[in-house]
Amino acid sequence: QWHVVESGGGKVQPGGSLRLSCTASEFTLNDYRVGWFRQAPGKEREGIICVSGGHGNIHYADSVKGRFTITRDSAKNTIWLQMSSLKPEDTAVYYCNANLGENYWGQGTQVAVSS
Fold this sequence. Notes:
By secondary structure, the protein is mainly β.
């Protein structure tokens, strides 16, 4: 059973956009720190965005700053990751993580950027 679920991945051309979502059914996402991570083939998983619980302070890694945007949707208990100006190096499996004292990971969603 996945405590958080990601969706929205797919294949897109360079310069294109995708929107990923992270949802939870057992707890309120906005109450906890949530991170987006990605893992490219042959590379370690890297954190790209961190959203604090409560006020929702957001930190973006330099690699995605200015291109990726986080939106929190309380009504849907969802955190959206809008990705624009995508590059081939953004190709990876994207994971959502919620920290409730222990880490809850989703199963990941694949993003492929190629022409």
